[in-house]
Write a structure and sequence with these properties.
- The protein is of the alpha/beta class.
- The chain folds into three domains: 234 residues, Rossmann fold, CATH 3.40.50; 93 residues, Tyrosyl-Transfer RNA Synthetase, CATH 1.10.240; 66 residues, RNA-binding S4 domain (Structural Genomics Hypothetical 15.5 Kd Protein In mrcA-pckA Intergenic Region, Chain A).
- The strands form four sheets. It has a six-stranded mixed sheet with strand order 1-6-5-2-3-4, with helices on both faces. A four-stranded antiparallel sheet has the order 11-10-13-14.
- Helix 11 links the parallel strand 5 and strand 6.
- Helix 13 packs antiparallel against helix 14 and helix 18 crosses helix 19.
- The longest helix is centred in the first third of the chain and has 16 residues.
- It is elongated.
- The mean pLDDT is 92.
- One of its GO terms (cellular component) is cytosol.
- Belongs to the class-I aminoacyl-tRNA synthetase family. TyrS type 1 subfamily.
- One of its GO terms (molecular function) is protein homodimerization activity.
Length: 448
Amino acid sequence: MTSTSTTGAPTVNPALAGQTNDPSFPTLWQELQWRGLVHVSTDEAALEELLDGDPVTYYCGFDPTAPSLHLGNLVQILLLRRLQLAGHKPLGLVGGSTGLIGDPRQTAERVLNDRDTVTEWVGYLRGQIERFLSFEGDNAARMVNNLDWTGQLSALDFLRDVGKHFRVGTMVKKETVAKRLNSDEGISYTEFSYQVLQGMDFLNLYRDYGCLLQTGGSDQWGNLTSGTDLIRKVEGVSAHAIGTPLITNSDGTKFGKSEGNAIWLDARMCSPYTFYQFWLNTADADVLDRLKVFTFLTREQIEELEAKVREEPFRREAQKTLAWEVTSLVHGEEATRKVIDASAAIFGQGDLASVDESTLAAATAELPTAAAGLGTQGPVGIVDLLVSTGLSASNSEARRTVNDGGASVNNVKVTDLEAIFGTDDALHGKYLLVRRGKKNMALVDLTA
């Protein structure tokens, strides 16, 4: 997801051109509420007035605790973009210093990454964030790194100039801190101090850019208000914060998790095919909320899809629209078309040979595979392919499948019991997609 040119300037993402907020809402604040993007905030009336007035500078911070952002971060990035579309001025902060600390988790201490790793990840995250914001015009986005104002700050200056404004009694009442204090593990002073660092970020951005609003997840509310409180105490100014809800599925499970792994925005960590399928598999009960949060479709468009979910759920029009919109936004339209074409080809409705190797590998990752070394001794017969992949339980069953016209290799029906297949027949010189019937498939890597 690199988005910076060789000159260091962010490249223009074509997806930005068609994005707008929904003009059917009287104010931006009302649209944010309708989309379900406001879980908690400072004074609502003041925020609605602020966002409906002259351009205001605002920010959201992202810590490099991994080499990629994930779907939870995407909520914040798209909120930054929605505010920018209303004329406001975004600051994207990547935490080169706070990434060395890590905000307190609900359960246990974070493993601290070394400085070189954090520096490398800062670059990755910056490139990802830049893809979603515009760096042109009167309200061009700017990227900042909090290491710039904390890197040379001495511990004494930090304690005297910043720490003196924080009360321990207030700090220990923050939800995550309180949970950790009551746990067997407790909390280190390192993680306990995180809210002071984040509060200092907001103060510095207010001083340097006139920043008056911070956004973040509602689980960060204690850290968000540490900044508003600090600005009020030091500068006598009312700053604001918006906490978005933590996105969960209708069954209460955590959104964006698959077998314990986040759905990453980096194609190297989560392929466009896997990403697309994640959205395509959204439950009917969740799809409308996802459309509101993760797409720029209007209220009218989403209500039309709501009717289709109600009247023709089997067509899954809302899920297809969601998958197209979000995958195109994150990975681009070309990659998304490749994913859709690959899905069609794998199920016999397109040119399988045109599917690139990485997409093919991702699309078939969960299929049964043959025993290792099956093709290393030369071409393999159709009966052996069916049996070794488990598509047929025995040689006799495999032969019946072939005789009945139910076997195919790379979408070509096989009727000859003596047919053999080698690397010359394989996709990308190595893969055979073996099928029994319409839905039972397996992948054979002849080089494994």
